Amino acid sequence: MLITEANSLAERGGPESVVSTSPTTVDVDKDGPAAAAGVGNGRRLVTQQSSVWTRRQQAVCVRHAFKHYGSNKNPNHVLQNLNMTVPKGTIYGLLGASGCGKTTLLSCLVGRRHLNSGEIWVLGGKPGTKGSGVPGKRVGYMPQEIALLGEFSIRETMMYFGWIFSMPSSEIQERLDFLLNFLDLPSQNRLVKNLSGGQQRRVSFAVALMHDPELLILDEPTVGVDPLLRQSIWHHLVQITKDGNKTVIITTHYIEEARQAHAIGLMRSGKLLAEESPSALLTTYNCLSLEEVFLKLSRKQGSAPGAPAVPGATDANMTNNISVASLNWGNKKDEPVFVTEESGVVGLNFHQSKEMLINESNGHLDQLNKNRAGKSEPVVDCDDCTDCFKLTTRGKMRALLQKNFLRMWRNVGVMLFIFVLPVMQVILFCLAIGRNPTGLHLAIVNHEMNFTTKECPVYNNCSLTWLSCRYIQQLDNETIVKDYFETKEEALDAVRSGDAWGALYFTENFTDALVARMALGQNSDNETLDQSEIRVWLDMSNQQIGLMLNRDLQFSYRDFAQDLLSQCNNNPKLADIPIQFKEPIYGSNDPSFTDFVAPGVILTIVFFLAVALTSSALIIERMEGLLDRSWVAGVSPFEILFSHVVTQFVVMCGQTALVLIFMIVVFEVECKGDMFWVIILTILQGLCGMCFGFVISAICELERNAIQLALGSFYPTLLLSGVIWPVEGMPVVLRYISLGLPLTLATTSLRSMLTRGWKIDEPDVYNGFIATIIWIALFLTISLVVLKVKRG
Ligand SMILES: Nc1ncnc2c1ncn2[C@@H]1O[C@H](COP(=O)(O)OP(=O)(O)OP(=O)(O)O)[C@@H](O)[C@H]1O
After folding, report:
1. For residue 127, which of 107, 154, 155 has the smallest C-alpha distance?
2. Phi, psi of 269 (to 5 degrees)
3. Separation of 268 CA from ligand 1 center, angstroms?
4. pTM for this one?
5. What PROSITE patterns does the record point to (predicted)?
6. What residue ranges line ligand 1, CB within 6 angstroms?
7. Nearest 5°: phi and psi at 51?
């Protein structure tokens, strides 16, 4: 029968290699691998060259697969020279102990991971190559973890994946109705996060079945599923593979349920111990259960050389992944058994395995062969090539955008974070930063006044008496709280103990000395000059308060002197120092710290909110398994990034509007420039922060690391970008570093627009735009590259 298959292939015009090499005959009793397998029944092994063409005919064909995790120096070998053949139209049960590498193998099949060496063919193509359809809609993958969005309802989950697979909504709904019923799922409007573990697994299974793919890869789909439903799942799998167009690869820890598979691969330590139909395995190993077979094979593999052999199995067949039961294939004893020359797999080239499975699976594959008879298998070269040059599809964008928006909408905390936080930050900044301190205690010792009666008269005319009182009255009562002390020592003690920010001392003949100083001018003696001075001791530990008191004391003296001079009909200008500060070109003579910091604060708020929002976005999806599942469904890194960019852009526009409205309209931060360019620059900075967030998200595996990196970058950026202190105050090296940061030139640009009213044609302004755009491009490129590398 096997030879007939090969001949019929030759008649159909199959590749020459299959036909021309078939006559090579090996005497199995002498040198063939089957000799070691104890095949001494006089049957011949016929070497059949495994060609690319034959491999492409299988649903899955793995040859000499090696895969290790970790570094080359210290590798953890997971797949070791593994060969596997899954004919089309079969259910293939992949069994093995926990940690033997099943999930790794499956992830290589769906293109999520790459082998270190070896070959994989899935549905005629190599996973991950253009046009192979894998990853993509030709495969349905149910990973071991739930890998769904908890915030989505069952219906929304189905819509998400259905749209990714370009299915129309009506078709998705039809499929959904069927799957809800078939998998005994609750109402389609229930949120996934509120379902039981078993229900969630069934939704995950439904997602894999959704688009009716050619190849279903199911990693433990029956965990947490009751026996009845388990049986109906298996029944369904048998049904869908019946016509030979669908193939299922399934892993399960319930070994006995795999009896319903057409073929079983028993895997251990990165190798297939055997690859057979369940009944062949039971017969060959003379066991009653598959579990027994597995134990026998495992013991054999683990036993020392020279240990008693399991009937029908040897070290040689195990290491060569030989299908022992294939030796029973064919009804006649003298029929040859084909050996795939390259792989060393006995019997498991596609014709033999099909043939075998027909016999072993109650005729199910008889039907399969009938369906295919006379039909030459099309070689899938570029099945999906209409999509090869498309960047995305409408369905994918619709799915990804809805997912991003719904996710935000459903999460009240995130919504508050997005819109309330920037407003709160602006309000807090405007209320807390830049205002003059008030209620500062000043310890005053005035020997001119009577300390007991506290008498200190003030005359607002040309009276030259009690001038110390007149000066003290000039001090702003809101800023300064005046505490009187009898002696200088007491006043200084008040400063030392932190009860006052400074001490002010007037001698007992202050007024006389001051009048003499004004009258005598350059003829004043030192004694007069000394006595006319107001002595001040400040607590300069707080620079802002110290400098402000210093400034207020001087301005108060100038106002006091000008007032006195004008009351006495003298020119008040005599009280000024001979430097005249005219109306400033930009800004005011009484500049506000708020106006200096505000541009940088606006950009920092928008930049770092975007970082915070995006830095964990991809990580959460990755940790939920949704990212992996989306990759397998055929979504590209570009599509993921693009959908996030669009979502974030919408959010950014809202945030920018709120920040600018509160800063400029509510708190009246100066804005002399063109509002249009101010808005554009702010949005661009938000986009820049978002792209930086993507980089963090793509680089970090854990959310914790992303938070650390985002927070860690916050302070250096804030300190070095000239937001709170001029760049000109930094050491030269830091200045260059500062110029290379994304916020520095943008802050200068926004400051120039807000406070100077400069237009876009000024270099200081347009440099900020150019730098921001360069950073956006750089961050996007980095995250795209990292995502592509990580996707494998
Ligand atoms: N990303 C990874 N990095 C490093 N080692 C890994 C990684 N994924 C899996 N491994 C290791 O590879 C081995 C095989 O893991 P794999 O998940 O493929 O096993 P499995 O057969 O699917 O197990 P189970 O049945 O428990 O799911 C294990 O030792 C595991 O620790």
Report:
1. 107
2. 50, 45
3. 12
4. 0.71
5. ABC_TM2, ABC_TRANSPORTER_1, ABC_TRANSPORTER_2
6. 69, 76, 78, 96, 98-104, 144
7. -110, 170
